Amino acid sequence: MVCETKIVADDHEAIAGTKKDSIIVSSSQMWTSSPSAIENKVEKRNQVFIREFERSDHEEVRRIFNEGIMERIPNSAFRGLKQQTRTQIMYAFLTVMCYVMTKSFTLTFCAPFILMGARYYYSRKVILEYLDCALHTDMADIEEYYMKPTGSCFWVAVLQGQVVGIVAAQGREDDNTLELRRMSVDSRFRGKGIAKALGRRVLEFAMLNNFSAVVLGTTAVKMAAHKLYESLGFRRVGDTDDHTLPGMTRSPLERLFFQIRYSRYRLQLHEE
Fold first, then answer.
1. Which reaction(s) are listed as its catalytic activity (predicted)?
2. 3-state percent helix, strand, coil for the chain, nearest multiple of 5
3. Tens digits of residue pLDDT in 156-194
4. Left (φ > 0), alpha (ψ -120 to 50) or beta: where does 156 sit?
5. Handedness of CA 241, 83, 228, 136 (dihedral sign)
């Protein structure tokens, strides 16, 4: 899921509206309660308009989704290694064995760079396969997957007439929960509270449709994404250190050079 974002501003106002309503959240209201005339003009320009997905949004939605997924390649290859203690030990062992077997300082010095290069290669391979899978399933036909089924929806955030953020919600009848999916914000517009506004829209939708809880899963490496979920009221309920993404082959080399942590979050709205 593409849920990675950076949140700086904090909006404490509730987001109103039904599924068929559009809402407006002003990012500048998060900073001041008594704007001057000049600030009012800036506020008007910075209003984030959240509405349901329309067919004409498809190209921009895919662009934002694609951008968010592609950011995962270096993040999972390099930043993600900090979360993989066993992998760090394995790489250190391989580096030592390189010296033991070759007695070459040059090769031993190059070994960590070769290992990091292999991590980048397999991270790119796996994530591109995951992206291709998503673009040929739900992201290929958003109306069919999210707009037509009861209890599901897809929203876009619009700023100055441009789509700058996306989020989906998919209802689960078996346990009466709503899954938050596909959240992503255009990298040029992060830090404006857009992701938090999108998240609150999903929570409002869940309450209006009487879901018992909102759940999500994320492979985000950056802490900003996890802080966002916590600020919305989500509680982390579990982690899987060796998660399998769609499209993975689980070959020995792939398992050696690609690992990703999957975190599950839950926000209980009311008891079933």
1. L-aspartate + acetyl-CoA = N-acetyl-L-aspartate + CoA + H(+)
2. 50, 20, 30
3. 999 988 999 999 999 998 899 999 999 999 999 998 899
4. beta
5. negative
